[in-house]
Amino acid sequence: MTSHWILGPGAIGRLLAHSLSSLAGVTLIGRRTLPEQQTITPPEGEPRIKHLNVITTSQLLANAPAPPAFVHITTKAMAAEAALESVADVISSTTPLVLWQNGFLAQPRLTELWPGPVLCATTTEGAYLTGDDGVVHAGRGHTFAGDLNNRHGELAQVVVATLTQAGLAATAVDDIRSRLWQKLAVNAAINPLVALHGVRNGELHDAAYAGRVEAVVEEVAAIMLAEGIQAPNGGSGLDAWLALVWDVIEKTANNKASMLQDVETKRLTERGAILGPLIESAERHGVGCEVLRGLDGELAELEAGF
User: Fold this and answer.
1) Known catalytic membership, residue 266
2) Cα–Cα distance for residue pair 285/298, rounded to 1 Å
3) pTM listed for this prediction
4) Among 50, 76, 183, 251, the one annotated catalytic
5) What residues does the Ketopantoate reductase C-terminal domain cover (predicted)?
6) Looking at the domain that runs over 3-173, which CATH code has it been given?
C-alpha cells in the first residue's frame, strides 16, 4: 500500500489524513501529541470518527515507520522548511514532496532546496479545526497540482488520481506557478479581512466589507498584470479578478479562513507569505499597494498583542 506522511495536523492536514486513510497508509505528524480518534464533519453534516496514525516528530525520529511514497507538508508557510528539516534524516532525498502552503514563499524555496521532486498544490477545499480531535470540511473545492519547473507531470497525475479517488476533486496542471499567484490573489482579498473583522468568508459580501474586498482586488489585479500572470477563467482585467474572488467567497461562504483561525488562537498569521510577495512585486514594478500595505500593518499590530 502506498504510504503518505503528512507534516502538520492543521485543518488541511487532517482533511487529507481522513480522506487518504481509506486508500493508503497515512501517518499524521505534528509537534505535540494529539488523540488518535479523530472526527471529521463533512459538508453533508454527519460526523465520522476515524482512528488515525497520529504521532509527534520526536516519536517519528525515535521509531520511524516505513519510508513514505509521498511527504505532504501542510504546515503554515513560515514553518514548511523547518518541518522538512525535521524529517529529512529519515526519508530518502528522492522522496516526492507535496506542498500545500498558502502564498508564494515556501514553494520556490523548497523547490530549490530539495533534491527530489517537489509538487505544489493549491486548493479551494474549505476546512477548519474544532479542537485537538476534530476538523470540519466546510466546503468542497478543487485542487490543482504541478511543479514549478514542469518536470514531474506524471507524478502530479499520480497524486491527483489518488486525491480524486479519496473524494477530493483534483487536476494535474502545467501552469501551477500562475495558479499559485491566482490563489495568492484570492487569499489576499479574503484572509486578511476575515481575520481583522472576525467574520466567515461569506460575510465579506456585506456592505461593511465589500468595498474593502474590491479595493484589495484592484491593487492585486494591477500587480498580476505587471507580473505577467493571466487573468483567471479566460477573462481580462479587473472584472475577471473580481469575478474569481466573489466566486470563491460564495463557494466557501461558511468557511473559517486559516488566518482567522490563527487570530482566534493568537498565533502568528501567514501575512508574510500572502501579502509579502504581492507587496514586494508591487514595489519591484512600481505599482501602488497602499491598501495591501495597510492590511499588513493592521495584521502586524494585531499580532503584536498576542
Assistant:
1) no
2) 24
3) 0.89
4) 183
5) 175-295
6) 3.40.50.720
